[in-house]
Specification:
heterodimer; A: about 270 residues; mainly alpha; MetI-like fold; B: alpha+beta; OB fold (Dihydrolipoamide Acetyltransferase, E2P); 9 helices; about 35% strand; cell membrane (chain A); transmembrane helix (chain A); molybdenum (chain A)
Chain lengths: ~270, ~350
């Protein structure tokens, strides 16, 4: 597969105009911290620094919870996106606004909201505790709840965009061919918006991986149970800066690897 | 097992009065200018839009009466049969094949949706593809087909579900001229063996005249004329219909002495006095003769008119004229040059009394 190579010498050649200055500045702002991070890594003592930070447990917890989050988003968010994309009710703008709220809400506030919903004294968690004597434990379950809360809007908005761009006459033709709404969704809509689903899943996954505020508020930072990689980095920074940079670099590598894997497939 | 529609629906603040009857095995063509409600009619029949008043009954899906007709849509009695239960086949101007499925799986989609197994679906699809001459492309991806092939696959897909009502909404309009001829032939041949009801929406009179058994003309959201192709071609009853079939048409009144006076005021001489007071008057464009000066001789109708437009088609030309009456004349390309016809030219137009036909309105 050949890819068109971007040229800077074309007719417009914006790279040779005054626009090059702010563009370069933007690049510096983006790249400088990453370069600094790599420059601070002590490659010799990388192994011991990582074990000090509890990197293995944290990274593995992060990967497990973020993947669970993406699966939850896909299972529940895809139908929601389809409902939003094809409904015409007067309530629709409100519903869409509700879906967008966690997107702009400060994550810590999201964590507080999750506490008062699912916590021991929460709106739902309270009655559950009263009747069954059970509370959601401080484990990966809380981490996944927090990550799903902040990631779902990214997934739903990306997939809904793709679904709204899908010509409605495809649904009409499928319906006249005898397909139930479920079969139309499963056999026509989802296969046709797969690139949108992939983009949404990537966005949701990236958001979940970086999740900090809602997780620490709602699930705490218990090593091995709820301490995801970002929480571990933050904690390591207070104890051993070398361990923090080492773990940060591991996360950077994971992100770059995932982006590189996806790039060839979906972002041409 | 027929389709019977009599009702209305709203599109924006515009109400469409829809009436249509289709018998099994019959092809009804629906013609009308843009915005006349053709596509809304298809949507109502397919179940993609509901009626606001009236009733629609169709052939099958749900519990039917003794004759097999089923109430599909009747707002008054809250009757509503969803599209997937109506046994309708839909073909639009764009083939809209599912791009992620092979040609065979596209055609098998209908049977599979209605519960057929994988093997049965494939067999049905292959048989249906053979009838449109595409058996060899069954394994292909839709993106590798030409537009004409894709539209034939769309037809096969619509028919593979054994619909009792086939809806064709401008099925040939997106094809280039050459492909249209062959695809029209495939369509006509396939429809001859189709036992269900067919509704063909088109703006091309040729489709309508070659494929349809009956024509329905819509204008501004209501039915303006229904008839066999022969009736419609010889006796249009609406200016749009007359334009489609290429006739000059005027509304006129005849008095007791047999003088026919057009609504614009001009009197027309006819060979036989009409037997009604309120009549339509038609003149074939080819019956109009054009002269540089007022001609003398046999009794005929003559008007001094101004050329508005000249359109050349091969060796003949259609000349639109205006003045005391609006008239279209068809003359040879040679006379266009001879009379130097161009917009603004003044000519005399004559029509023999025997070439004027009248019929009751």
């Amino acid at each position: 597969m050949t890819r068109e190579r971007a040229t800077t010498g074309g007719p417009g050649a914006p790279a040779r105009s005054v626009l090059a200055i702010p563009a370069a500045l933007a690049l510096v702002l983006l790249l400088l911290p990453l370069v600094a991070l790599l420059s601070r890594v002590r490659w010799g003592s990388l192994g011991s620094a990582l074990s000090t930070a509890g990197a293995g447990e944290a990274v593995s917890l992060s990967i497990r919870t973020t993947l669970t989050t993406v699966v939850l988003c896909a299972l529940l968010g895809t139908p929601l996106a389809w409902v939003l994309a094809r409904s015409t009710g007067r309530w629709l703008p409100w519903l869409r606004a509700v879906v967008t709220v966690p997107l702009v809400l400060p994550p810590v506030v999201g964590g507080v909201a999750l506490l008062v919903a699912w916590g021991r004294e929460g709106l739902v968690g309270g009655p559950i505790h009263d009747w069954f004597g059970w509370t959601i434990p401080y484990s990966w379950v809380r981490v996944v709840l927090a990550e799903t809360f902040v990631s779902m809007p990214f997934y739903v908005l990306a997939v809904e965009g793709a679904m709204r761009a899908l010509d409605g006459r495809y649904d009409a033709v499928a319906a006249t061919l005898g397909a139930s709404p479920w079969r139309t969704f499963r056999s026509v809509v989802v296969p046709m918006v797969l690139p949108g689903v992939a983009a949404g899943a990537t966005l949701a996954w990236a958001r979940a991986l970086g999740e900090f505020g809602a997780t620490i508020t709602f699930a705490g930072s218990f090593p091995g149970r709820t301490q995801t990689a970002p929480l571990a980095v933050y904690q390591a920074l207070e104890i051993d800066p070398d361990a923090a940079t080492a773990l940060s670099m591991v996360m950077l590598l994971v992100c770059v690897a995932v982006l590189a894997l996806l790039r060839g497939r979906w972002w041409r | 097992m027929s389709v019977h529609l009599d009702g209305s629906t709203r599109r924006g603040d515009f109400t469409l009065e829809l009436a249509l009857d289709v018998e099994p095995g019959e092809v009804v063509a629906v013609l009308g200018p843009n915005g006349s409600g053709k596509t809304t009619l298809v949507d109502v029949l397919a179940g993609l839009t509901g009626l606001t008043e009236g009733a629609l009954s169709g052939p099958g899906g749900g519990a039917g009466d003794a004759a097999g007709a089923v109430g599909w849509d009747a707002p008054a009695s809250r009757t509503w049969v969803a599209p997937q239960q109506r046994r309708v086949g839909l073909v639009l101007a764009d083939p809209l094949l599912f791009p992620h499925l092979s040609v065979r799986d596209n055609v098998a989609f209908g049977p599979r949706s209605r519960g057929a197994g994988r093997a049965t679906g494939r067999r049905t699809a292959d048989a249906e593809l053979a009838t449109v001459g595409l058996a060899d492309r069954a394994g292909a991806r839709p993106s590798t087909l030409s537009t004409g092939q894709a539209q034939r696959v769309a037809l096969a897909r619509a028919l593979a579900g054994e619909p009792r009502l086939l809806l064709l909404d401008e099925p040939l309009s997106a094809l280039d001229a050459e492909t249209r001829v062959t695809t029209r032939a495939t369509l006509a041949a396939r429809l001859r063996t189709f036992e269900g009801c067919t509704v063909l929406v088109t703006h091309d009179p040729l489709d309508a005249l070659t494929i349809a058994d009956r024509l329905v003309f819509l204008d501004a959201g209501r039915v303006v004329q229904v008839g066999t192709p022969h009736e419609v071609v010889s006796r249009p009853r609406n200016p749009y219909v007359a334009r489609v079939v290429g006739l000059n048409l005027w509304r006129a009144t005849a008095d007791a002495t047999g003088v026919v006076r057009l609504d614009g005021g001009a009197a027309v001489q006819v060979a036989e006095p009409p037997d009604a007071a309120d009549v339509w008057v038609t003149v074939r464009p080819s019956a109009v003769a054009l002269w540089p000066q007022e001609p003398h001789g046999s009794p005929r109708n003559g008007w001094r008119l101004t050329v508005v437009a000249v359109e050349l088609a091969g060796q003949s030309a259609r000349v639109s004229l205006t003045g005391r009456i609006d008239l279209v004349a068809e003359v040879t390309a040679a006379s266009v040059a001879e009379l130097s016809l161009h917009p603004g030219t003044e000519v005399w137009a004559t029509v023999k009394a025997t070439e004027v036909s009248t019929y009751a309105a």
